[in-house]
Structure to design on (220 residues):
């Protein structure tokens, strides 16, 4: 069971169909590409519809399992005066409420920020990995991903101690510097004092709160 959030540059019905059918309950979500032609099959709600998309002969040649048409769900919302449309394979409105889907995609940019945080904070702005062999590169990448997610997991707990905040509203750089320092000191703390030190981590969450993110001045 999974959901993959794609950028609109990945719009390919062949790719999306293969992604969805190569496993159980594999879903996708991406912005509607400008100029996409579709037929409304039926309305699922206000600004929520089941649509039918036609595939091209070229796509079917490249993706032999691709049918002539695909059905997907199209959700439309107006955000800050601009109409936004997302397309998804999650067509059941009872299982997947439209508001939840749109809210989920609004956090997609956090994925991009995650890559930046790993590169800038954990890799200290290095342009390349240290490893020179394939096995070492894989090990280093998994190590960075594991460290990042462990730090993020602790930040989720820290944010939960603050009313109305999420982990994405805390500074990853400042929090990671603090957490790495504290964790590196744990071996020198007596076992009986460790629970108290861990609890203290959450109490420091307030100092890592970021200011509200401003709206984009110009289109990307």
């Amino acid at each position: 069971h999974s959901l993959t959030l794609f950028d609109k540059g990945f719009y390919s019905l062949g790719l999306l169909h293969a992604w969805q059918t190569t496993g159980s309950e594999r879903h996708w979500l991406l912005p509607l590409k400008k100029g996409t032609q579709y037929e409304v099959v039926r309305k699922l709600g206000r600004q929520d519809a089941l649509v039918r998309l036609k595939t091209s002969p070229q796509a079917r040649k490249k993706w032999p399992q691709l049918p002539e048409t695909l059905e997907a769900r199209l959700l439309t919302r107006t955000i800050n005066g601009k109409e936004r449309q997302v397309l998804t394979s999650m067509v059941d409105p009872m299982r997947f409420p439209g508001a939840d889907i749109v809210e989920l995609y609004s956090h997609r940019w956090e994925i991009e920020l995650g890559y930046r945080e790993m590169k800038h904070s954990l890799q200290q702005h290095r342009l390349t990995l240290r490893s020179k062999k394939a096995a070492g590169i894989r090990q280093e990448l998994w190590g960075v991903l594991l460290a990042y997610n462990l730090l993020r997991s602790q930040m989720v707990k820290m944010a939960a101690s603050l009313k109305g905040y999420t982990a994405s509203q805390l500074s990853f750089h400042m929090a990671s510097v603090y957490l790495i320092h504290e964790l590196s000191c744990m071996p020198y703390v007596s076992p009986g004092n460790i629970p108290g030190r861990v609890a203290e981590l959450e109490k420091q969450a307030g100092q890592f709160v970021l200011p509200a993110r401003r709206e984009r001045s110009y289109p990307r």
In short: The chain has seven helices and six strands. The radius of gyration is 22 Å. The chain has a mean pLDDT of 88.
